[in-house]
Amino acid sequence: MKKKLMKYFVCASMIVSIVSMSMPFASAEPPEVASNPYPSSGSTGVTIFVNLHWTGSNETVAYAIYFGVESVPPLVVSNITVTTYNPGKLQKNTTYYWEIVSFNSDQESSASPIWMFTTAPDTSPSQPNIITGPATAAKGIALNFTAIALDPEGDSLYYQWNWGDGNVSEWFGPCVFGDSIASTHIFAENGTYEITVHAKDVTGMESVWSASREVVIQPQFRFYNLKQGYVYLNFWGFDIGYGYVYALDQALWTMYVSNEVFMVVVNVTANVSYMKYRITNLVMQDEHWIVIDENFTNLTSVEEFPLDTGFYNITAYAYDGHGNMIGRTMRNWVIYINWKWPILKRLLGRGG
Known about the structure:
By secondary structure, this protein is mainly beta. The chain has helices at 2-22, 246-250, 341-347, and strands at residues 35-38, 43-46, 52-55, 62-68, 75-80, 84-85, 95-103, 109-111, 115-119, 129-132, 136-137, 142-148, 157-162, 172-175, 181-186, 191-201, 213-217, 221-223, 230-235, 238-244, 254-258, 262-268, 274-281, 288-293, 300-305, 310-319, 325-338.
């Protein structure tokens, strides 16, 4: 009987041992508590775009995040493996509470303290920057200037310009967060002007004025020939001013008499990167040329056109290195007459 009992005892011991070996070992300690919260607990003036950060431990494999405006925040996400969380755009001037619960591989957990922070109230947009715009141009040209400002709360912005010539624009916008605004202004007189701009958000909070951007308004080129009211004779490439005629000036004409091709000579400033010329036949409106000149010699642009006798409109455009049009001049009613002996006789009054 004793032997049977001993056998039963040994068998039971072996079964208990085998079962014990097959069961998972329970950890003696839960994972380390999350620490070093960012924003730190009690922080104020926190941006509404903040990302939450904390420090975990090597034995932690997952986290649950409790976050909200309640002092005991609700669960918002679980089973994440990174130590950062983006709660999205927050409310201004609001206190938020958050807690991190850490889990190890055996699903044992440790909860952090409940931390808190307060977001910043509505603040003014940043000082705008004028990021593009010509430094110099002629009067009467529509000039484009671009500015940008940022709003701490990501609000849409309005912009107002002071053009420095006595004109202040209306408010333009709204522009969504991160977008620049382009505005156009025409200066009526030559001079040096200081342009500034400021911004306001949709709640009416205004920024300070930007640093000024200087623009010099002055002529950027001039026709060396084809001055209004003059008769020009072209002999073998040389333009000779034959004389000023009041009637031509009143009719906005320039007479150009040549035995060669029609020539346009323009003196440009150092600000001009290239010129465009548009030549239009005023009788045949569908006939026109556009020529681009990027090669200047001694700040002079020279273009030759093999035109027939007729009435033409010549418009010249000047551009800077950024592609901004900084000058434009038009010669209405340009008369081009090939140099021929019968015409010379008529001009000299000898009939024929």
